[in-house]
Amino acid sequence: MSTYTVTTRTPASTVFGLCAVIVTGLLVVAPAIVGRGMIQDLFFILTMLTLAQFWNLLAGYGGLVSVGQQAFVGMGAYALFGAVILLGLDPVAAILVSGIAALILAVPTAYFAFRLQGAYFAIGTWVIAEVTRLSIAQWKAVGGGTGTSLPRSAMREMWGVEAIETLLGVRSSAARDILAYWLALALAVATIAGIYWLLRTKRGLALAAVRDNAEAAKSVGVDASRMKWIVFLVSAFGTGLAGGLIYLQKARISPDAAFSVTDWTAYVIFIVVIGGIGTIEGPIIGVLIFFLLQSLLADFGSWYLMILGLIGIAIMLFAPRGLWGLLSERTGLHLFPIRRRLTGGRFSDKET
Amino acid sequence: MSILSLQNVSKSFESLKVTDGVSFDVPKGEALGIIGPNGAGKSTLFNLITGNLMSDNGKIFYDGRDVTRVPAMRRCLNGVGRSFQIPQPFEKLTVFENLVVAGAFGRDTSEAEVTQACAEILERTEMIDRANVPAGQLRLLERKRLELARALATDPKLLLLDEIAGGLTDAECQSLIQTIRDIHKSGVTIIWIEHVLHALTSVVERLLVLDFGRVIGIGEPGEIMESREVREIYLGIEV
């Protein structure tokens, strides 16, 4: 019998891979070129992109539509503040505590929420996030309901800030922004690379199988509930890291802001939906459009939210697979190909 | 030695008894056919054997072990493969990927290890030309073939086929029969639910008749088809 092989790469993906390396390189050196305002904007884009990628992993690949991801942003942020204020940990090192705290919260959350299906699951996660917010608001050591700030000394002595000051010749406050930006860049790149890697392993196939048909997946040996747990815990960990980093940069926290369903879940869902759910490319496009809209509509107050809502509805009706879905359907383009194409054997004569 | 043994297995949905005290043994290497009118509980019986449903009463032994409470995914790893009566493909995956996921998980190995085997199964089931097509785009007939191919990808010792011959042309049916014969010859135990009787009887060694969730006859196909009960209950409705 003839020999078959599997390929995932496409010509477009190879070109794109090179472009991605160049863009990432440019982003790394950006602080030496662009101003502080631009760095703050890029920080916002990168952290929202990270949140969007994890929500997309949950909902788009795992079929778990959560509206409670703010629980992990808030938990991560508060863990960072707690570790810095109470334990005297370096803020950069404390980001890891953020991820771990979110992971710990995710275990009971999943235990309860996995008993619910579909819309009930979505509302269940939201309820758990609210309970977490109300509980954290009782924590007096980090400011209770009114919140608190990171101590100035900890911010000044933060690991890496001095090196950036001398390297780029900037003031301490700008150096902190640059440090946060580089961390955000590293997190976003690691997130995309990690998710892409996951989807290309056999677990990625299993994830798609469970999403498409859980009963059939069990019948071919896939542990469906284990896949759900993996996706939920990984997403919580990453969301917690992002939450810690976002509030490291803000340096001021309150329960209402850190557990905001609008900021950390509604916007994130908007980004994924308009970009294209179930693709890695979608959130990247989505976050750029979201940022543009936000800058354009910044002066319109609550009209801004209504316009976002209308755009969201229009996309859901007319392009349910998002802008990337539309583009990819027309052009057949895949920048992060995961499709395993069977080649060789009977196909070899056709493809030459 | 029997590969599968059911002892007094029952299952009810609300007050409806769908499987009612079913007991039978399947020797290793046998091909057993299951017939019975619509609603007799044939597919439910399959779901109980595969673990997609859990029985209310009774015991199920597979390969000498009590698997009554073992989940579907474990039973698959131990060698129980199945096709669904209503095809259940992974729609967004390609035909090939449908097989790879079944192969890699059902055999608990890597994707690379099963690539060649999956491609060969696609050749055998005449699905190779559709390998890179998303399963959601397949026609009904192709979906049925994919069910068989995907079940084979898990490398089953016991293969459960649920009405895969329905709606085929004569030529297609002949080639399907040949494929199933080959699978059987390679040592796989087969349990096959089918309404297309001539296809079934040309492969199986024994027939089991199910009606209202009960076994009303089991034995050599000729004998079974002759029996008065079967003629009354089954053929009376079917012919």
From TrEMBL, chain A:
CDD domains the UniProt entry points to: TM_PBP1_LivM_like
Keywords: Cell membrane, Membrane, Transmembrane, Transmembrane helix
Primary localization class, coarse: membrane
Transmembrane segments: 12-35, 42-61, 67-87, 94-114, 178-199, 229-248, 268-293, 300-319
UniProt entry tagged with the keyword Kinase: no
Subcellular locations according to the entry: Cell membrane
Protein name: Branched-chain amino acid ABC transporter permease
Species of origin: Sulfitobacter aestuariivivens
TrEMBL record, chain B:
PROSITE patterns to which the protein is assigned, alphabetical: ABC_TRANSPORTER_2
Name this polypeptide is given: ABC transporter ATP-binding protein
Keywords (A to Z) from UniProt: ATP-binding, Nucleotide-binding, Transport
Organism: Sulfitobacter aestuariivivens
GO cellular component: plasma membrane
GO MF, any single term: ATP binding
SUPFAM superfamilies with a match to the protein in the record: P-loop containing nucleoside triphosphate hydrolases (SSF52540)
SMART domains assigned: AAA (SM00382)
Source taxon at top rank: Bacteria
Gene Ontology BP annotations: D-alanine transmembrane transport; L-alanine transport; L-isoleucine import across plasma membrane; L-valine import across plasma membrane
